[in-house]
Design brief:
It is a single chain. By secondary structure, this protein is α/β, with parallel strands linked by helices. It has a single domain, classed as P-loop containing nucleotide triphosphate hydrolases (Rossmann fold, 3-Layer(aba) Sandwich). It is 41% helix and 19% strand. It has a 5-stranded parallel β-sheet, sandwiched between helices. A 4-stranded mixed β-sheet has the order 4-3-6-5. Strand 5 and strand 6 form a beta hairpin. The chain is globular. The N and C termini lie far apart (41 Å). The mean pLDDT is 87.
Length: 197
């Protein structure tokens, strides 16, 4: 007689970590190789980087549109990141996808993760860590998308973000994108329980 193995209910998994750790790269791997996982598309007021497409990588908004959504309560979380641009997660699509039975992944910054923890404490919070500080600096400099002043701002932010690692339920080291992404998807399918205070 077959034994019914309980399948964990779909849940929200929040992926956060310091700037340049590769959150977007890991999320892109999940998007390409695991279409069953729904990835939230964040809103931002920063300009698109080369190759980024509106509605795929981000919803690129001007400040007035972002603030209107924020003020109307349409964002699950929002923050000013690196002291310059708004980032946020539209609330409606997250709730719709979870209600439909699909697992959902948010790739967001530390401030946003803290806000989501307040409103959705049953989510699983995953910290993506670099193999080392030197590797994080190398990745930030190597991507060449920020000027020297912006890199300095981001590295200052990264030190504070790394110090918050203990706030998360699980840490994944991004030493290999494929391995890190597969570990993340494996956690999404597991019944790994969030830490409780």
């Amino acid at each position: 007689m077959p034994v019914d193995v309980p399948v964990p209910a779909p849940r929200l998994v929040v992926l956060a970590g310091p700037t340049a750790v590769g959150k977007g790269t890991v999320a892109a791997y999940v998007r390409e190789h695991h279409p069953e996982v729904w990835l939230s598309v964040s809103c931002t007021t920063r300009p698109a980087r080369p190759g980024e497409r509106d509605g795929v990588h981000y919803h690129f908004l001007d400040r007035a549109d972002f603030e209107a959504q924020r003020d109307a309560g349409q964002l699950l979380e929002w923050a000013v990141v690196h002291g310059t641009n708004y980032y946020g997660t539209p609330r409606g699509p997250v709730h719709e996808v979870l209600a439909s039975g699909r697992p959902a992944l948010l790739e967001i910054d530390l401030q946003g993760a803290r806000q989501v923890r307040e409103s959705m404490p049953d989510a699983l919070f995953v910290f993506l860590a670099p193999p080392s500080w030197d590797e994080l600096v190398r990745r930030l400099v190597g991507r060449g998308t920020e000027d020297e002043a912006e890199r300095a701002r981001r590295l200052t932010t990264a030190r504070a973000e790394l110090a918050a690692q203990e706030e998360f339920d699980v840490t994944i080291v991004n030493d290999d994108v494929r391995r890190a992404a597969e570990e993340l998807v494996s956690l999404m399918r597991s019944d790994h329980q969030p830490k409780r205070d």
